[in-house]
């Protein structure tokens, strides 16, 4: 069985169109249709059917789809291992703030250095992506450092330190972050996230019992709500860009040991270690990313505890 036939089948199912699959594979629609016909002859079953203007998998096609994807991935892995070139598909997970803030520079450096690497990016929370790395569904993930010891089967490299900052509407005249956090309605970073647990740890350390108003898992959304005057928040100072048009004050907290450490996680036994190393090279080559953008960052007047 020619794996190119499987590639065409998977592409048609994923894009719902023979014409679109042909465009992405750089083939004619007739050539893709011929490949599908040949594959159906090898399998002994019809694999695709039309549904209106789209093409979808038949029951038999759906039954083999996942295995076809895994087989194609295994073939790419074998080619990558056997080749002297740094090439293949890298499956990378990243949290939302890393996708917009950290990854663009890294991907630019990686594309320039290693144009033969194809990168698939999966968004998610740090906990979700951590589990996908351990299960082998991802080769690496750009996440917050776990609040527990990383197993020895994995490697970890810190990319960026993001200390906690109090976010306050620019219309509020606070110089002490603790007073703002204890007085104003509080927009909480979701405690099911590792970053949210870090925030909770700081509030406990400081003895602050905030007046919770909302609890969200999106940092960008939290910043927008603060800008609208709906409360204050305590968040990691993530890499810009931040949402445009915000008028906020950032106040540094008193204990800078409460810092979200963003880093790269991967498994030591991965078949794509060469690609992960290329990613690490790109991280090292990318320019440093500063904090805060154009948002105001006055110094807190209160003495450190």
Description:
The model is unreliable at 289-305 (pLDDT under 50). Strands 3, 4, 5, 6, 7, 8, 9, 10 and 11 form a nine-stranded mixed sheet that branches. The protein has a two-stranded antiparallel sheet with strand order 1-2. The protein has helices at 3-15, 18-25, 29-43, 59-82, 96-101, 103-113, 126-135, 177-183, 194-206, 219-227, 273-285, and strands at residues 48-51, 54-57, 88-94, 117-123, 140-144, 154-169, 185-189, 211-216, 232-236, 248-252, 259-267. It is of the alpha/beta class. The radius of gyration is 24 Å and the shape is elongated. The protein folds into three domains: 3-82, Arc Repressor Mutant, subunit A (Orthogonal Bundle); 90-160 and 261-285, Periplasmic binding protein-like II (D-Maltodextrin-Binding Protein, domain 2), CATH 3.40.190.10; 162-259, 3-Layer(aba) Sandwich (D-Maltodextrin-Binding Protein, domain 2), CATH 3.40.190. The protein contains eleven helices and eleven strands.
Tell me, what's the shape?
Answer: elongated
Low-confidence stretches: 289-305
* Classification by helices and strands: alpha/beta
- Give the helix level as a range of percent: 40-55%
Query: Which class of the largest domain in CATH terms?
Result: Alpha Beta
CATH topology of the largest domain: D-Maltodextrin-Binding Protein, domain 2
Number of domains: 3
| Total strands | 11
Please state the average pLDDT score.
Answer: 87
Based on CA atoms alone, the radius of gyration comes out at: 24 Å
User: Which CATH architecture of the largest domain?
Assistant: 3-Layer(aba) Sandwich
Give the DSSP E fraction (strand runs of 2 or more residues): 15-25%
């Amino acid at each position: 069985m020619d794996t190119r036939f499987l590639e065409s089948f998977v592409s048609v199912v994923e894009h719902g169109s023979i014409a679109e699959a042909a465009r992405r594979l750089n083939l004619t629609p007739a050539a893709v249709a011929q490949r599908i016909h040949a594959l159906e002859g090898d399998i002994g079953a019809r694999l695709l059917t039309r549904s209106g203007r789209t093409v979808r998998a038949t029951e038999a096609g759906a039954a083999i789809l996942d295995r076809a994807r895994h087989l194609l991935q295994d073939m790419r892995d074998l080619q990558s291992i056997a080749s002297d070139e740094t090439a293949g598909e890298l499956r990378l997970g990243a949290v939302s703030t890393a996708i917009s803030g950290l990854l663009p520079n890294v991907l630019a450096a990686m594309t320039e250095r290693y144009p033969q690497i194809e990168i698939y990016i999966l968004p998610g929370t740090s906990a979700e992506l951590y589990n996908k790395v351990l299960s082998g569904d991802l080769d690496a993930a750009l996440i917050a450092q776990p609040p527990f010891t990383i197993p020895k089967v994995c490697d970890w490299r810190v990319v960026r330190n993001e200390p906690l900052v109090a976010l306050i509407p620019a219309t509020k005249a606070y110089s002490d972050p603790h007073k703002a956090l204890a007085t104003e309605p509080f927009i909480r970073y979701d405690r099911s996230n590792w970053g949210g647990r870090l925030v909770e740890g700081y509030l406990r350390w400081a003895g602050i019992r905030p007046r919770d108003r909302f609890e969200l898992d999106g940092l960008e959304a939290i910043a927008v709500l603060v800008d609208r005057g709906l409360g204050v928040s305590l968040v990691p100072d993530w890499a810009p860009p931040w949402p445009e048009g915000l008028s906020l004050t950032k106040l540094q907290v008193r204990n800078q040991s409460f810092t979200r450490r963003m880093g790269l996680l991967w498994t030591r036994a991965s078949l794509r270690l060469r690609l992960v190393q290329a990613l690490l090279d790109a991280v090292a080559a990318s320019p440093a990313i500063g904090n805060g953008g154009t948002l105001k960052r006055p110094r807190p007047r209160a003495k450190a505890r």
